[in-house]
Specification:
two-stranded antiparallel ribbon, mainly alpha, elongated, 213 residues, 2 strands, Arc Repressor Mutant, subunit A, 68% helix
Length: 213
């Protein structure tokens, strides 16, 4: 094989990447996941065969896109949390810290919008909901532990386990982002929602912790 010729693995990876990119473009344009295989293939410049060699359905393609985008969001959030936990980068107040965290996330709403659409479908389709169980408990625990450390840096201790705190924070943020198109001040809303959840699920160190449910 010529050294400059792409290997089958590289070709397959590039095909998958272009299909995911096509799906992202179509979702951004339509706000739906109802495209046909033919529409996605036409956008990506492939045949149906190329599609089915990578994905079994359009739903699976969009789930893969969501997972890929989620990984980017989690990585940026982890990096921002680590910066907040380091003395040189720490903000003076919890509200300022939350503002810095949210400012580190991707500016586009595509991932949050896609997540909302997928969750709506999952609510009406049990089998699809099972396939969307992609929020790894280990990831939630790790993220939650960082939020607990952030709260501790501002004199607060949790009243729930790390994974529940992380899931509550993510739910608040996703909900606030989803209404951004009709919100006159979405940044303020998102900041208030996240800071409010952290405060609501923690207590000041001088207060006795509430019993966990």
């Amino acid at each position: 094989m010529n050294e400059g010729e792409p290997t089958p693995v590289r070709r397959r990876s590039e095909t998958r990447r272009r299909l995911l990119s096509a799906a992202a473009t179509l979702f951004e344009a339509t706000g739906t996941i109802t495209q046909s295989v033919e529409e996605i293939c036409s956008r990506a410049g492939f045949t149906r065969g190329a599609f089915y060699s990578n994905f079994s359905s359009v739903d699976q393609l969009y789930l893969a896109l969501h997972q890929e985008q989620a990984a980017i969001v989690w990585e940026r959030l982890h990096t921002a949390l680590d910066k907040q936990l380091a003395e040189p980068g720490r903000e003076a107040t919890l509200d300022d810290a939350v503002g810095q965290l949210l400012g580190s996330l991707p500016a586009g709403r595509e991932w949050f919008s896609l997540r909302a659409v997928l969750l709506a479908k999952a609510a009406a389709d049990t089998s699809f909901a099972e396939s969307m169980m992609i929020d790894d408990e280990h990831v939630a625990d790790e993220l939650g532990s960082r939020f607990i450390a952030l709260a501790a840096a501002h004199g607060r201790v949790p009243v729930v386990e790390p994974s529940l705190l992380a899931k509550a924070v993510v739910a608040a943020h996703v909900g606030a982002v989803s209404q951004a198109p009709v919100d006159v001040d979405p940044t303020r809303t998102q900041r208030a929602a996240v800071a409010g959840v952290i405060r609501g699920l923690t207590v000041a160190e001088s207060e006795p912790p509430l019993p966990a449910e």
